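Annotated sample (chain length 201).
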Amino acid sequence: MDMDISWVQDIGLDTKTGRSYTGSEEKYVSALQRFYKSYEKNKKKIEEYLGAEDYESYMITVHALKSNAKMIGAMPLSAMFEELEIASRENRINIVTEKNKPAMAAYKELIDKLEPIGAAPEIHMADEISAEEAKETADRLLAALDDFDDDLSKELVAKLAGYPFRMTQMEQLKKAEDFINDFLYDEAADIVREIVPTIDQ
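Output written by the structure step:
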C-alpha cells in the first residue's frame, strides 16, 4: 500500500488500536474510508430518528457508530456514542437531548479532518466481497451448517469474513467460526442469521 497515513495519528486517532481491530494497515485504511463515506447517511438517520422520537432505532445507530469509531481508534468519540447508546436504552431522553449535539459535532470535526482519506483512491482488499456476494455466501453457509458439512462451513465462514462488516458483526462472525470448530452448528447458524440483515446497511 502506497498511501501515507502517518498524519492520522496527529488528528487524535489511536492507530495502534485501530490496526489491532482491523488486522492490517490496508484493512485499517479501508475502515477509515468507510467511516468517512458513511457520515452523511448516519447523520440523516440520527436526525430522522430523533425527529420521530424513535429512540430504539436511534440506539441501534449510535451503537453502530460507537463500534465504528472504536474500530478506527477514535476512542473519545466512541465513548460519546456509547453514552448516547446507554441513555437511549435506559430511556433517559434528557441525556440524549443534551449529549447528541456535542457528539455529532465531534463526529463532523473528525470527518473534516479525514477528508484526505475520502479523496484518496478507494482501497479494496484482495479477499473483500460485495454485499450481494456476502448474502449469497451466508445463504450457502446456512445450508452447509444445516447439512453438518464441516469443511464447507469453514470455507464459507472464512469467505464471509471478507465482507467489510462493522466491528460488532466481525466479533459475532468470529464466535460463529469458533462454534463451527466445536461442531456447534445450530449455534453458529443462529449468529449468521443475526448478521445477515446488517449486510449492505
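Annotation: The two ends are 27 Å apart (CA to CA).
Annotation: Residues 31 and 100 are 24 Å apart (CA to CA).
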